[in-house]
Amino acid sequence: MCDKHSSNTKNDAAATPNAAGVGSRRRRLWDLSRDTHCPVIGVCIPLAVLRRLISKALGGSTQADDYELHVGAIAECGNRNRVSEILQEDLDQRYALTIKRFRSAKTHDALAQLWVDAIYQGDVAGAFWAGLTHPLCNHHIQEGMCRDMHMLQHQAGATVRADIMRFNAVLEENAILAREIAKQQERHTRYVQEKTQELELLQQSIVQLRAENIGKESVIAYLNTDLQALKNTIPELGSRQRLQQKVEQMMSRQQELEQLVRELKHKLINANRRTTTNTEQLEQQPAQDMRAVEIKTHRTIPIAIHLQQKNVLCVGGRSGNVASYRDLIERVGGRFAHHDGGMEDSQSLLDTSLAAADLVICQTGCISHNAYWRVKEFCKRTGKRCVFIENPSVSSLARGLEQATEDLDVGKKEPQITPAS
């Protein structure tokens, strides 16, 4: 429609080239035809501004509704008065920039083109007022602008209705989202409160545990003080503790020895059985072989017989040979005991060991002088059998045992101290 109007405008301009008979004065609101007042008031002036301007012209606030206000303003625009002058002034001020831009139009075609550009740009309110009041606006341009504005109002109304529907949908969605946010905020608030309560309980537990820890540390310090005081009141506590450990070690060793004795008894019974079997076999051999067997048996059996269940105390000797001493004596049925001769073992244990021994072997080469004289004097006083060995070897110990056993076989009753090589 605008293009058709533009073509009509061009034909009219051709009929009146350059509009020679038209002046440069812009038309006023009351100079416009009455059919233009409705779109001008309805489109170019916002309703709230219109109510304010009418109230200003009447000297007080108007109580009319929007429609009555619109109709009353249109009626006042038919001639020049207080209301039309105020509306004219407001329109010129509101669209001053657009009016200035439209002044550049020097022909009907230029004016029509400015209106078409305004429609495409979507800014029709200021362009409608500037175009209608332009000096070059004739009947054809005015009619075309009013037609275009009428259709734009229809389109705007449809757009507004669609916008209202979308707006209502957005409002509903916003209400739903607001409810969800409120629920989330409520859950969040409840969660924060629960965590705050848990944190308070944990802090109370921490304070309680710290108090208990301080109390326990105080009790421990008090008990340590009492323990130290008790230790100070008990003389030789360290020596007693060491002796107690020594007694426990000796008891453990005694149990091991008793177990070993039981095992040796079992072995001895088996050995005696084998010896009896061998003796029966030897009786069947020639006489010359029997003599050799008797000589060999004479050196092995007497030790087993006379040392069976005998307590043999070995005083002194090398620490590396103690195990060999023990093996030799226990192999022939004796009970082995050892004292290092005062090197590491206590001298007070020597008398106890001597009293419990049936036979004493004194290693003179590896013993202290004090222990040597104590052994010699004790055996002489009590009649204990004592054999002195200078060489700490196992073979010397075996010869000393044989010598001591032979002396027991002869039946000597006087206490003797026998040296051995």
In short:
By secondary structure, the chain is mainly alpha-helical. Helix content is about 70%, strand content about 5%.
Task: Furnish the topology, listing elements before pairings.
Blueprint: H1 2-15, H2 34-44, H3 47-58, H4 66-76, H5 82-94, H6 96-102, H7 108-121, H8 124-132, H9 139-233, H10 237-283, H11 287-306, E1 311-315, H12 322-331, E2 335-339, H13 348-356, E3 359-363, H14 369-382, E4 385-389, H15 394-410, E5 417-420
Parallel strand pairs: 1-2, 1-3, 3-4, 4-5
Provide structural commentary.
With 421 residues, the chain is mainly alpha-helical. The chain has two domains: 2-172, no CATH class; 286-420, 3-Layer(aba) Sandwich (Rossmann fold), CATH 3.40.50. Helix content is 72%, strand content 6%. The protein is built from 15 helices and five strands. The chain has helices at residues 2-15, 34-44, 47-58, 66-76, 82-94, 96-102, 108-121, 124-132, 139-233, 237-283, 287-306, 322-331, 348-356, 369-382, 394-410, and strands at 311-315, 335-339, 359-363, 385-389, 417-420. Strands 2-1-3-4-5 form a five-stranded parallel sheet, sandwiched between helices. Strand 4, helix 15 (394-410) and strand 5 form a beta-alpha-beta unit. Helix 2 crosses helix 4 and helix 3 (47-58) crosses helix 5. Mean pLDDT is 78; it is low at 1-21, 290-305 and 411-416.
